């Protein structure tokens, strides 16, 4: 288990480093307003991507672990279902872009094509997770990220400033990872018999995965909806600076995920009694609070230097925003540490209610605060959303009993 966690940590750490470098170079290449547009496209893509999680690893991995003799059947049905979900999502994504997107749409459509390459081929990642062997798939994803970063570096030094060209680097990364996963899957599973595809079985998978898929969609929308709303409410330059600050926060989110991946299996998921779980929850929350305070201290002390070093002098406004944004990161770390309690006890319905409330608060906050306070109002809205999640989670952790009858996530 420790080795698998280490490989996941290496993968996430590499993604953080490459993500920051890629973002910094693109921000310098396309300018503040162009970078805001680029992040708008990525935010829209990631929100719609969550719709393809309706048959996620949380459902597939346990099935693969419990039924290794049915690996081919599970994998082929999962792939077909996820591809179908990707097709429906892509159509919805294009409709959204045509109706509400900016005048320049090509780069956003290029992002949308990644819907066919992400989750469908991710079934191979789930397969290896079920075998507790994350090394191969983690390496593939890390190498894909490195390839994308190298492409961005080359494009930057060539003086390229077209958004669609940089979007192609993202698409090529997804294509390279999908091809590598396909080869790995073929080596393990061999040829797949299409007769294994069953509409009845796919419907069961969809029903099982729908609650957590909807929960991920609500969370993804809560975290990124500001980048879809703000372009119509604040100046384009201010939005670009805000997007730069929020891009850093999303990379810092991954840092918290690395720590939770390391702590949760040992301190929470493998523990039996609810008393021990609650006791260990205190440890997990304390670690995440300490990590959050460290991040806040770092960016309050060196935030302007970090922003200028990464994005350049044109992003001075982002240096001001990042001091507010890291407070959101702190709240995210606390909420993340509390969320593992919900997954431990499969509290699917409560997860949906929690993230639904969070999204509602963020939406109301953006429309009421952003027109008055600009980007700072949007960040405050997200902070209020996380505070609601934390309060909700604390109530559940303190009052939940094992006799509570909850729908499985």
Number of domains: 2
Total strands: the figure is: 0
| Quaternary status | single chain
- Stretches where pLDDT is under 50 for at least 5 consecutive residues are 405-409
CA(first)-CA(last) distance: 23 Å
Q: Structural class of the helices, strands and pairings?
A: mainly alpha
Radius of gyration: 21 Å
How much helix, percentage-wise, in residues? over 70%
Specify the overall morphology: globular
Strand composition percent: under 5%
> Sheet with the most strands?
none
What letter string, H or E per element, gives the SSE order? HHHHHHHHHHHHHH
Give the count of helical stretches. Answer: 14
- Output mean pLDDT: 90
Fold and architecture overview:
The protein starts with a helix and ends in a 10-residue tail after the last helix. The model is unreliable at 405-409 (pLDDT under 50). Helix 3 (71-100) runs antiparallel to helix 4 (106-113) and helix 8 runs parallel beside helix 13 (348-373). The longest helix has 48 residues, at 2-49. It has helices spanning 2-49, 57-66, 71-100, 106-113, 123-130, 135-157, 163-189, 199-224, 226-229, 236-269, 274-311, 316-344, 348-373, 375-399. It folds into 2 domains: 1-224, no CATH class; 230-409, no CATH class. The chain is mostly helical and 409 residues long. The protein is globular.
Short description:
With 409 residues, the protein is mainly alpha-helical. Helix content is 82%, strand content 0%.
Task: Describe the secondary structure blueprint for this structure.
Layout: H1 2-49, H2 57-66, H3 71-100, H4 106-113, H5 123-130, H6 135-157, H7 163-189, H8 199-224, H9 226-229, H10 236-269, H11 274-311, H12 316-344, H13 348-373, H14 375-399
């Amino acid at each position: 288990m420790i080795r698998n966690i280490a490989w996941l940590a290496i993968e996430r750490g590499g993604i953080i480093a490459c993500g920051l470098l890629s973002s910094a170079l693109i921000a310098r290449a396309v300018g503040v307003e162009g970078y805001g547009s680029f992040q708008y496209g990525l935010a829209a893509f990631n929100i719609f991507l969550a719709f393809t999680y309706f048959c996620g690893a949380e459902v597939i991995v346990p099935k693969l672990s419990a039924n290794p003799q049915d690996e081919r059947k599970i994998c082929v049905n999962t792939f077909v279902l996820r591809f179908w979900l990707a097709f429906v999502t892509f159509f919805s994504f294009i409709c959204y872009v045509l109706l509400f997107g900016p005048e320049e749409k090509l780069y956003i459509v290029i992002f949308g094509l990644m819907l066919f390459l992400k989750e469908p081929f991710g079934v191979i990642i789930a397969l290896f997770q079920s075998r507790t062997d994350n090394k191969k798939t983690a390496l593939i994803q890390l190498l894909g990220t490195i390839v994308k970063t190298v492409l961005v570096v080359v494009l930057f030094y060539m003086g390229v400033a077209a958004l669609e060209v940089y979007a192609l680097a993202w698409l090529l990364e997804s294509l390279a990872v999908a091809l590598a996963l396909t080869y790995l899957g073929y080596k393990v599973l061999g040829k797949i018999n299409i007769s294994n595809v069953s509409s009845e079985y796919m419907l069961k998978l969809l029903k099982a995965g729908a609650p957590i898929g909807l929960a991920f969609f609500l969370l993804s929308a809560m975290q990124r909806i500001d980048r879809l709303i703000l372009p119509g409410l604040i100046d384009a330059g201010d939005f670009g600076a805000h997007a730069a600050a929020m891009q850093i926060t999303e990379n810092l989110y991954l840092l918290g995920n690395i720590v939770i991946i390391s702590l949760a299996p040992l301190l929470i998921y493998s523990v039996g009694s609810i008393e021990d779980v609650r006791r260990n929850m205190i440890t997990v929350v304390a670690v995440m609070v300490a990590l959050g305070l460290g991040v806040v201290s770092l960016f309050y002390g060196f935030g302007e230097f970090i922003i200028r070093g990464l994005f350049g002098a044109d992003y001075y406004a982002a240096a001001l925003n990042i001091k507010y944004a890291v407070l959101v990161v702190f709240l995210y770390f606390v909420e993340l540490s509390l969320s593992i309690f919900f997954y431990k006890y499969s509290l699917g319905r409560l997860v949906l209610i929690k993230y639904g409330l969070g999204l509602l608060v963020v939406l109301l906050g953006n429309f009421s605060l952003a027109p008055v306070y600009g980007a700072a109002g949007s960040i405050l809205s997200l902070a209020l959303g996380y505070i609601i999640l934390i309060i909700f989670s604390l109530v559940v952790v303190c009052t939940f009993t094992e006799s509570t009858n909850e729908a499985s996530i």
